[in-house]
Amino acid sequence: MTETTSGNLDMPTCQEVALRLSDHLDRALPLRRSLGVQAHLALCPNCRRYAAQLRETLGLARAAGQAAPADEAGEAAALAMFDRLAKKGA
């Protein structure tokens, strides 16, 4: 998400949302970034699907008593999912 000269924020890209989604779901993002992620999710069906899959995966991991994946693994999974969704839309 980038700041414009007027001080308004641009909508985050799918890749930015994928990288921040876990923190968003954990309520670990600053309010302004979290609102950007929410706005993007409202408009992007691919990212909504990814968010639903991530929620389910994290819920299953927590139910099994496992910690969430390491940040690097989570980022790699997010980027792989983004690439697959981008190719589907192309």
Arithmetic mean pLDDT? 79
The helix-and-strand class reads mainly alpha
Oligomer: single chain
User: Cα distance, first to last residue?
Assistant: 23 Å
Tell me, briefly, the overall form: globular
How many separate structural domains? 1
Count every helix, treating DSSP H or I runs of 4 or more residues as helices: 4
How many DSSP-defined strands?
Answer: 0
Order of helices and strands: HHHH
Backbone CA Rg: 14 Å
Relative helix content: over 70%
Largest sheet: none
What share of the residues does DSSP label as strand, in percent?
under 5%
Low-confidence runs: 1-7
Q: How does this model look, in words?
A:
By secondary structure, this protein is mostly helical. The chain has one domain (14-89). 70% of the residues lie in helices and 0% in strands. It has four helices and no strands. Helix 1 packs parallel to helix 3. The longest helix is centred in the middle third of the chain and has 19 residues, at 45-63.
